[in-house]
C-alpha cells in the first residue's frame, strides 16, 4: 500500500488529518491508539448478533413450554 506525506490541520479545537482515498477505511468509526510516537487507526469491526450471543452465559433455568393456542374471535361492532 505504501506511504504518503500529508498535512495536519486544525478542526475546531482538534488536530486532524485528511485521509487520502487510497487509504480509506470502511464504515464511519475507527479505533485510534498510540504506539510509542505513532498513531494507529483501525476500522471498527461491524457488530454481529452471533458475536454478541457468544458472550452470553447459558441460562440456568428451564424455559417453560409455550402453548400457541388460536385466539377466540371477538365481535367488536
From TrEMBL:
It comes from Skermanella stibiiresistens SB22. SUPFAM superfamilies: AbrB/MazE/MraZ-like (SSF89447). SMART domains: SpoVT_AbrB (SM00966). Belongs to the VapB family. GO terms for molecular function: DNA binding. Keywords: DNA-binding. It holds the Pfam family MazE_antitoxin. Gene3D superfamilies: 2.10.260.10. InterPro entries: SpoVT-AbrB_dom, SpoVT-AbrB_sf, VapB_TA_antitoxins. This is Twitching motility protein PilT.
